[in-house]
Amino acid sequence: MLYSILADVVVAIHFLFILFASVGAVLLLKWPWVILLHIPAAVWAALIMFMGWICPLTPLENRLRVMAGEAGYQGGFIDQYLMPVIYPAGLTREIQIWLGLGVILLNLLIYSMVIRRYRLNKMKNKK
To answer: Cα(122)–Cα(108) distance, rounded to whole angstroms?
Structure first.
């Protein structure tokens, strides 16, 4: 039971990391220091996709599932709703590359908005 719970926690962390790497730049609007965490996370996420690597969280989660005596991803909220997002069926190398490009483009868009807002606030404060 404990290993099953730990595996679910790993999946939740995995999902939150993907979310943060994809759209975490929005947090810069409130907390500019987040850039120190976000840029490495976004670069890592893109590298995983471009290089076809396996995130270290995946084998960890699978090992915990085996230790829990589980054969697969059955049951529970996390398995039902988060697993298909993290491990979509039919994920190909081409799709991975497009996902990596999507992460980069989305973050470039968000960063351009953050920079624009920063510049506008800076100009406003000078007046």
So the answer is: 21
